[in-house]
Amino acid sequence: xxxxxxxxxxxxxxxxxxxxxxxxxxxxxxxxxxxxxxxxxxxxxxxxxxxxxxxxxxxxxxxxxxxxxxxxxxxxxxxxxxxxxxxxxxxxxxxxxxxxxxxxxxxxxxxxxxxxxxxxxxxxxxxxxxxxxxxxxxxxxxxxxxxxxxxxxxxxxxxxxxxxxxxxxxxxxxxxxxxxxxxxxxxxxxxxxxxxxxxxxxxxxxxxxxxxxxxxxxxxxxxxxxxxxxxxxxxxxxxxxxxxxxxxxxxxxxxxxxxxxxxxxxxx
Length: 268
Prior knowledge:
Elements: E1 9-14, E2 17-22, H1 33-46, E3 54-59, H2 70-81, H3 87-104, E4 108-113, E5 116-118, H4 120-126, E6 130-134, E7 138-140, H5 154-161, H6 163-172, E8 175-177, H7 178-184, E9 189-191, H8 194-208, H9 213-225, H10 231-247, H11 249-259
Parallel strand pairs: 2-3, 3-4, 4-6, 5-7, 6-9
Antiparallel strand pairs: 1-2, 7-8
Family: Belongs to the enoyl-CoA hydratase/isomerase family.
GO molecular function, one term: isomerase activity
Keywords: Isomerase
């Protein structure tokens, strides 16, 4: 697997996980067009790689992501003033395409959240499979206070925490801490500090090693499909996937490992 060269991201492979660090500390890791493009390129590079079983998203210098970069808005304003009627649409929609890709990534997406988790950063947290936050984390959807809607983020927030809570957060522009985020289900666990956050991520990744990579990919796909597919058709497909798994290499290895009372080959 060849990873792309990145200017706004730091990439580090550790065992079965790829750590992706948003790295624009001067802007609290606000997401600009370059970062959107680089994240998309990384997702493309690892999509079919079964050795990369987790993507750990985090931010540099004590912040996760402060949302979208306001400088991109200025660039879109200039383009619109010159007659480009689609400038703001393209800018906004490009992030929606990215967050959709992260949501559907075949790997387990783990979010390590600190400091600013705002706007687009909030959206990324809401499409993670596992999210942990330390007590420095502050979550919010400030868009309406700036006179704009959280257009690409809103569906994913509502899917994560339910419509009524999404309404409250978005329509009041509220900011909440890690404990409230855990209560609402934005994150799965709120921990005390950065050291506990790092230890928690290590525990998640250790647990993940017990799960077969292809089985995990199929399971994630089936879970996501529950929101869009008709039930009987989805169950038909699920049965076909089950049959393939039972007779495939992972199913055989899993059964042998259980009988022989040893870890499976993917848990090494």
